[in-house]
Each structure stands twice: as C-alpha cells, then as structure tokens.
Amino acid sequence: MQSKFIKNYLYNTIYQVLVVIVPLITAPYISRVLGAENVGIFSYTSSIVSYFSIFAVLGTNMYGIRETAYHQHDRRGISVIFGEVQCLKLILTAAVLPCYLLYLSLCHEYNEISIIQGIVLLYSFFDISWFFQGLEEFGITVFRNMVAKVLGVILIFAFVKTKEDLALYTAIQVIVILVGNISLWFYLPGRLMRISIREIRPFDNIRGILELFIPVVAIQIYNILDKSMLGIIAKDMSENGYYEQTTRIISICMLLITSLGSVLNPHISAEYAKGSIENIGSTVTKAFEFIILISCPLCVGIIAVSDYFVPWFFGDGYDKVALLMKIYSLVILIIPLSNMAGMGVLSPTKQHNKGTLAVIVGAAVNFVLNCILIPMCSSVGAAVATIAAETAVTALHLFFIRKNIRLKHVFAFLLKDLAAAVIMGFCIIAFGMLMDRYGFNNILITLLQTVLGAVIYFAIIWFIVKDKLFKQLVNKITAQLFHK
Prior knowledge:
Elements: H1 2-33, H2 35-57, H3 60-70, H4 75-106, H5 111-117, H6 119-126, H7 129-134, H8 138-159, H9 166-183, H10 206-234, H11 237-274, H12 277-314, H13 320-328, H14 331-346, H15 352-377, H16 379-400, H17 407-437, H18 442-465, H19 468-482
Helix pairs in contact: 1-8, 1-11, 2-4, 2-6, 2-10, 2-11, 3-4, 3-11, 4-6, 5-9, 6-9, 8-9, 10-11, 10-15, 10-16, 11-12, 11-13, 11-14, 11-16, 12-13, 12-14, 12-17, 12-18, 13-16, 14-16, 15-16, 17-18
C-alpha cells in the first residue's frame, strides 16, 4: 500500500509540474496577445458557466471516488457504482443544459464566448477521472492530462494571434479538455463487468451524493464568486483580467502542495474502510508537516519577488497584479491546510456535515465581504474577501479534526518554518533592491532572488531549525539517487 501511495503521489506530482509549466509558457503570450480586458471576459464567462456545471455534477465525483475506493477489490461493486454515478450525471446534465440555454437567451452580453463555454457542461459528464482516482490508478489520468495540456499549448501558439481570437482561445481551452475526458473511456474495458440495468439505481445514493454536494457547491461558489461579482459590480473587465492572472499564478504555486490531498483521499478512504484509524492520524500529521515545509517559503517568496516578476512576465498594463499577488499569496499557506483537513480527513472518514458547515461559513463570509469591498477596491477587495473566507474555512476545519491529529505539534512546526521563511523574505527583498539600484533587469533579479531564497530558507531549516522531516526527505532522495 505504501509503495502504491508513493507511486500515485509521484504520478500526480509529475502532472502538477506540467500544470505549472504550461501556464508559465502560455500566460505571458496570452496576456500580451489578448490583453487584460479579454482575459477578464474569458474569466467572467468561465465563472458563470461554472455555476451550471456545479449542478450538472452535484457531489457525484467525490461520492464516486469514495465509494470506488471502498470497493476497489470488488469488480461487480465498482461496476454498479460506475453505472449509477454516470447515469445520475447524465440526468443532471440533461436537466441543467436547458437552464443554461435559457440564461443565454436572456443575457446577451459576451454571448459568443458564453456559448463556447457551454461545452464545459458536456466535458463534466464525460469526466470519469473520479473512477481511476478511486482505484488509485493515477498514471492513466496523468498521461491523459499531460497529452491534453501539450496539445492545448500547441494549438494556442499556432492559432491565437490577435485580440480578435478570444473565441478561438476559449474553444481550444474547452474542447481539448472534452477530448481528453472522452479518451479516458477507452481505458474502462477490463476494469468493469457487464451488469444488469436493474442493478443500477442512481437515486438510491442521492442522500450520500447530496451530503457531498453541499460542501462541494460552497467551495466551488466562493472560488468563482469573486470573478463573477467583479464582472457584475466593477463592470471593468480589466479588473477581472488582473484578478484572473493573479489567481492563475498563485494556483500554480499551490498545485504541487494540494495534489497531496487528492492522492490521500482514496488512500485514507481505504484505511478507514479497514478500521485503521491510527494510521490515518499518523499519515495526515506527516502530510501537514510537508505542506507547511513547502508552503511557507512559497507564500513569502511570492510577496518578495512580485514587483520584479510581474513587469517582465505579463508585460505592460498589468502593474496592479503585483499588489494583488502580495495579498492573494496568503492563500498558499491557508488553502493547502484546509484542503488536507477536508479531503484528507473529513471527507474519507464521512464527517461531511462538519466540512459542509465550514465551507458554508466561508461562502457567506466571501459573499458579504465581496459586496462591501468590491465597490470600494475592485479586484483588491475581492482578494481581501477571499483571504478572510479561506481563513474562516481553515480555522473551522482544523477545529473539527483536532482529535485526529496533534494540532499543537502542527502549529509549532508552522511557527518555526514561517519564521525561517520571513527571514528569507527580508533577505531577498534587500537583495532585489540592491540589484535594481545597479541596473540589473527584472528577469535576472527574479531568478537570482528565487535561487538565493531557496538556499537561505533550506539552510535555516537544516542548520538552525534542524527540521527532522526535511532531513528525512533529503536522506531518502540521496539514497535513491546513489542507490544506498
């Protein structure tokens, strides 16, 4: 089981590295070719269709992962689960699609882009990655996603040339994912068996699916609420463009950390099904330590390098993104902790009511603060509202899992690593100002700040903090490299 878990995490990490690289390649190009306003239109229309997509999926994906993990050695059982989940998704998609068409007929703003974005509803149905995640077969989904990402990059550079190509850019983004999702169906033969149509009772599981839907919808809504409320209240799509670029960069930084939660979910579900409660607590505590070790320097590092990073990466007209990155970077530290508590403990151990309460509180905080702050500060207000909402969710999640892990140990670990990161931050800010004074260009300053920051942080962690987890990781990696 341990080797399978490590393999799955490596698979997921490889994919997350690709997810990091692709936007780093395309974002500077798209920001210059399409401009902040068009990036904002794409972000706004994407947020609107996401509301419909939420109801087309409900909590079926999370339910499917959990139930498949519980029955992963029962071929008939997972065949029934697959049939029931996809049957229910088909019914939901068929019900939501006319609602989206009604929205399009009533709201004519950015109609062409909104029509293309509607393809999202189709690829949500064809997405069966949940099935392979439940089986802990991450290699299949990773390979599919890698091919889709590479194909998307090629098509963007080949065909998106001017501001008038926004519709083409949108089509590429959604169609590539649709094709990728359909391709997963070719891996099903051999994993499922033929069952009677009478065995498929999709509505028998509706209660469990709805239990998962409420936290999922709350999470999804406050993740996209900022962008849709910015478009409605601020009415300046450039503000949405600044916010979109900020969230994209910060999300890239979080991917390598939050991927641990998606791997742990089926692993812990299987442990819970076997009654191995002690193993869950030990695994999650170690996961928290790893998250803190990585997220602290990323959070502080983004704050320190943003002034030099934004001008060369996004180009002219994106100065506000530097300020937004300084504020929004706090989620790098907050969200992974919440993600681990929710996906790593509450969801696989069937404590959905607690997770539901946390995310409903977060969604409410986000909505209220957006209403107050967006009219005053536009995208800056949206960023502050998100930080407040994520902090509320994380605090509640940690409170709910206090009996599963040693929270005092986790907070002590957090304080030590955060102190090391803050020292690193002051050092690289001073270094950047010195290099700027001597006329070095922003690209070189950013690169040297990054290298220097990594050296300072991990030197403090090794020699002063004497972090046991970091030393264990280094020793394991060294042993693998030199076959000790």
